[in-house]
Amino acid sequence: MASPSCASTLPWTAAFSPSSSSASTSSPRGLHTRRAPSLVIVAQGKVKKYRQVILMDDIEEVGGKKGDTMKVRAGFYRNFLLPKGKATLLTPDVLKEMELEQVRIEAEKKRVKEEAQQLARVFETIGAFKVPRKGGKGKQIFGSVTSQDLVEIIKSQLNRDVDKRLVEVPEIREVGEYVAEIKLHPDVTAKVRLTVYAK
């Protein structure tokens, strides 16, 4: 006859017997079929520390001029340049627009230079401008011939306006032939002949 203590332990030991354990393992709802949730780690992209921008204004902090392209710190762009409208990101679309604008600028520069060259040819082939002055003793004249005098002569004879600041007239104190210069363009200087005579 089994003792009460042994009888009370049978159900407990049977529950964890090898046969019971194998049955539990084969059951879909057994303890050993549960898996701990897996931890998924997602790699984040590297944060950009710099931005390639085009300056919309002169920026003393970075030593850049309007229209310059440069690399600046992302925080400086985000917190200062962007809110104040002082720079924009250099995207492919912006770069393409810059290239088109540069083409337009170069075309305009070429047009202005060609017009200056044409005007220079007019001045150099038209002949000497006659400048009358009251005669003095010998070849001397009273007064002189100034840049303003030449500007007025060009206006009256060719109906063209010329800025007198672009005109350089040699010192003229007597009658004779002279050559003045007109800076029509940084690369184009017209030679203008003057004939000063006593009236």
Describe what you observe in this structure:
The chain is an alpha+beta fold. It is 38% helix and 21% strand. The chain has five helices and seven strands. The strands form two sheets. It has a four-stranded mixed beta sheet. A three-stranded antiparallel beta sheet has the order 2-1-3. Strand 5 and strand 6 form a beta hairpin.
Q: Can you describe this structure in just a few lines?
A:
The chain is an alpha+beta fold and 199 residues long. It is built from 5 helices and 7 strands, in the order ααββαβαβαβββ. The N terminus is likely disordered.
Features:
199 residues; alpha+beta; three-stranded antiparallel β-sheet; disordered N terminus
Q: What order do the strands of the largest sheet run in, or round the barrel if closed?
A: 4-7-6-5
Q: State the total count of DSSP E strands.
A: 7
Oligomerization state:
single chain
Radius of gyration: 47 Å
Q: Helical proportion? A: 25-40%
Spatial shape: elongated
Alpha plus pi helix count: 5
Low-confidence stretches: 1-28
Cα-to-Cα separation, first versus last residue: 162 Å
- Helix-strand sequence: HHEEHEHEHEEE
- Strand percentage lies at 15-25%
